[in-house]
Amino acid sequence: MDEYFDQTLNNYFDQAIQNRFDQAMNPLEPEKKKRVHIERKREEGHQRLWDDYFREDATYPPQIFRRRFRMNKPLFMRIVERLSTEVPYFEQRRNGHGRLGLSAIQKCTAAIRMMAYGSAADAFDEYLRLAESTAMLCLEKFVEGIVHLFGDEYLRRPTPEDLQRLLDIGEVRGFPGMIGSTLNDINILDRSPVFDDILQGVAPKVKYFVNGRQYRMAYYLTDGIYPKWATFVKSISMPQDPKASLFATYQEAVRKDVERAFGVLQARFAIVKNPALMLDKVKIGNIMRACIILHNMIVEDERDGYTQYDEATFAQVESNRTSEVDFTYSTDIPSNLRNMMGDTITIRNEVRDKKIHDRLQADLVEHIWEKFGTNQY
Q: Coil, strand, or helix at residue 219?
């Protein structure tokens, strides 16, 4: 009996070892998961969407449309029309059986809802009738189309006239030569497109006076984590006298305007503040650019209804203007590579000059005190 038991056990182990050897020598390919086909009845999804928002007697009124699409209906339809006629992906086609595919309105609605609410790709499957992978592709193609079709108009570089307007606004608020505030990640500062033109020597030059001293490089207001560069004006974290305290108050107040503007962008498109739906850097970049472009389009579309401020308030009379674009400065790129590299190094050193930073900040402290101090103390 013992011999029979030992023989049976040995045979079992021999077979087990043989099986493992065979698996190692002839690995089986993993079984491919079969894609489950779901008949989503996309035609019904399109008709429901059309009845709810786009027909003359739509279920939901215009104010509800704007809240859920983040824009007015005419602007949305303008975008849909451009995409459906100029981007092949949004053209509605028939398949081999003659059945129509998803409509451009369905695809664009899926993309804009994901951007507006920051939702998962399958969040609108039951309503819009499209799969998760299709929704992700709609978002990808939508932002690519927005950047391609509208980027040149709504995400262009500022013209000299735009730059002069920014200078005028900055001067009225007590900061001559200031053209904005920056929220760029400090870790990618050297690769920021904000400074590419400056370092290459092709950015428009400005000239302005602060406390009787002339400067020729525009600057941005920043917080304390940024380096002491000539193009940055930081606040004073621990002011020790009334002048420094007043400067810090005004600097932080003006800088917060950009933070509020970015907050508006986040409120309008939750995809900006939520965890990224995509891991590809290029796709994430396109999403961010598309959000900014759409924001600018919405602002233009609704500008006539804004009543919070009067642009004339920031208009500068030329005779009183101390900050202006220097149109006499040449922005031609040197043809000689050695000269070009030398100029780039010179400009880079000028941008990073701590002495200019400290002197400009000190002059602005005096300027703010002279301009506003009598009303505060």
A: strand
**Does residue 266 surpass a pLDDT of 50?**
yes
How are beta strands 323-326 and 205-210 bridged, if at all?
antiparallel
Does residue 49 contact residue 128 with C-beta atoms inside 8 Å? Answer: yes
Q: Could you give the count of Cα atoms lying within 13 Å of 250 in the half-sphere of its Cβ?
A: 25
Residue 273 forms part of a structural domain: yes
- Domain count for the chain: 2
The answer as to whether 312 is a domain residue is yes
Pair (291, 167) in one structural domain? yes
Q: Does 33 or 173 have the greater pLDDT score? A: 173
Does 146 share its domain with 168? no
HSE on the CB side for 235, CA within 13 Å? 19
Mean pLDDT over the full length of the chain: 81
List the single range of 29-33, 145-149, 151-155, 216-220 with lowest mean pLDDT: 29-33
Domain that holds residue 284: 160-376
H helix intervals, 118-195 = 125-128, 132-154, 160-172
Per the listing, tokens 């005028």 go with 168
Contact between 170 and 178 (Cβ < 8 Å)? yes
Give the pTM. Answer: 0.68
What is the spatial distance between Cα 339 and Cα 335, in angstroms, rounded to a whole number? 8
Q: Is residue 211 a part of any domain in this protein? A: yes
